[in-house]
Amino acid sequence: MRDGIPGLPTPHPLIDQLPAVYLEQDFLQRFLAALDDVLAPVLLSIDNLPAHLDPRSAPDDFLDWLAQWVAADPHEGSPPELRRAAVRGAVARHARRGTVGGLAEALRLETGTEPEIVESGGTAWSTGPGTPLPGQGRPWVTIRIRASGGGGVGRGGDGGGGVGRGHRAGAGVRQPDRVRLEELIGAEVPAHVGFTLELL
User: Fold this and answer.
1) Which end of the chain is less crowded, N or C, counting CB atoms within 10 A of the terminal residue's CB?
2) Is this model's pTM higher than 0.70 or not?
């Protein structure tokens, strides 16, 4: 709710709704003006409801509410433009969740860089029996992210989280937070798939 804005005009003054015989009464004018001050934020919020429901124009506090509606989980410390992008693309990302493309998109949004993803699976066809199956026996995915100032190799397993925070390391590139990335990857890959995260 928008309130506490001094001098906020009301789009529908109450005094204009009364018969002309009451317009000259000073007490009534002052009383209704006080009610207008109270009702102005309510009326303006209702008039601007479509803008509140659009992640491109929603107020910052309302944006967090919208994120809950679409099951997006931007970190509370994320920059506003990252949180808005997370909410705006949440439904499309949910449709691709658990795929290489969905994981790459979530990591791109998180870090601002293109991740390199190698998975253990594979596909093949054969005209004869006994052809070895492609891929590796254990489901696994390796994610390499290139960013300045970070390094090391880490292993993860199950995790929770969603699209979230990164710190800026340059123009359009955010310094990755290893813990946050591992939570994000754990939430994006299927439950039976392990992963290795490499920050280069």
Assistant:
1) N
2) no
